[in-house]
Amino acid sequence: MTIQSLFLVTLVVDDYDRAKAFYCGALGFDCLEDEKQPAGKRWVVVKPRGGDGAAFLLAQAANEVQRAAIGNQTGGRVGFFLKTDDFARDHAAMLAAGVRFLEEPRHEVYGTVAVFADPYGNSFDLIQHAAG
Predict the structure, then answer these.
(1) Has residue 131 got a pLDDT over 90?
(2) What's the pTM?
(3) Strands 100-101 and 78-83
(4) What is the DSSP string of 20-70?
(5) In sequence order, what are the beta bridge partners of 102?
(6) Domains and CATH numbers, the chain
């Protein structure tokens, strides 16, 4: 039997340190790696604290095509889903850290959710699944 999992997703950013400050500061992610690479690049991997899902590889844009993709990697759709075990706690902490929510929390049949954006405009769902 083959076992596979998605463990890393590239997120194109304008600056390594700015992105790392948002994801590790405002969102409370852990920085798993931050290693210098040739030609001024870095291997920066951040991941939600305590989670078992995929991590982000923060990749600083290196040309105009990549710069054009910053903040629009999913064509304006919510592209990332941050699961929490306590929506109220994490929503309050994110608001206090200056995270910009695009809507008020709402209750759906699948759980409690609110859309927020990173500094680049990428949209995320903060979501706590309903018990059941």
Answers:
(1) no
(2) 0.91
(3) unpaired
(4) HIIIIIIS--EEEEEEE-GGG-EEEEEE-TT--S-EEEEEE--SHHHHHHT
(5) none
(6) 1-70 (3.10.180.10), 72-132 (3.10.180.10)
